[in-house]
Design brief:
mainly alpha, Arc Repressor Mutant, subunit A, 2 domains, 2 strands, globular
Length: about 180
């Protein structure tokens, strides 16, 4: 789940089952009771129809937690990003970064660092389209060392410069959960 509408959609499905939710946030729902087999089957089907996946195994849950935490940080954190991502993940997930990184790479086929870069580039695209911040302000907001670094990473990832993108932003942005 990567947005408030996603959370609302998942919440609706739990309400249809009359299953009270203790807490719901990006990528995670906590409930008091265990679901029956038929409830799990219904929920899995209903969520799939809405474009979601029910993750039951611990490994998938951990990967989703990593992704959700990073998406939340890059896309919904309103202050400039001034932190070390590995330290952030260790505190957020409660495991050492090396094991998280190894698992993430094995399961996702890309490194956590590459996932962060792809998320940051999607955020840059969004900010360029909104046209409210200069490229320098965007670089500061997303903790790039310089505008040059941001521009190089943007071109390497998208095949165009930020200014070319801004002129031709008819290219559809990817859904955040599809960035990979």
């Amino acid at each position: 789940m990567v947005c408030n509408r996603c959370i609302e959609a998942v919440q609706e499905e739990f309400e249809k089952l009359d299953v009270p939710i203790n807490s719901i946030k990006l990528g995670e729902v906590q409930i008091e009771q265990n679901l029956t087999t038929s409830q799990l089957k219904y929920l899995s089907t209903a969520l799939h129809k809405r474009g979601f996946e029910l993750l039951e195994d611990k490994q998938s849950q951990l990967i989703e937690h990593i992704k959700s935490a990073l998406i939340q940080l890059v896309h919904y954190h309103n202050k400039p990003l001034k932190l070390n991502y590995s330290t952030f993940l260790e505190k957020e997930i409660g495991r050492d970064y090396h094991s998280l990184s190894t698992l993430f790479s094995l399961v996702e086929g890309i490194t956590i660092e590459k996932f962060i870069i792809l998320q940051k580039i999607e955020k840059v695209k969004e900010l360029l389209i909104y046209d409210e911040l200069s490229l320098s302000q965007i670089a500061i907001h997303l903790n790039y060392s310089s505008v040059h670094h941001l521009s190089n990473q943007f071109k390497k990832t998208t095949g165009m410069t930020p200014s070319q993108f801004k002129k031709n932003h008819t290219e559809l942005r990817k859904s955040l959960d599809q960035v990979k």
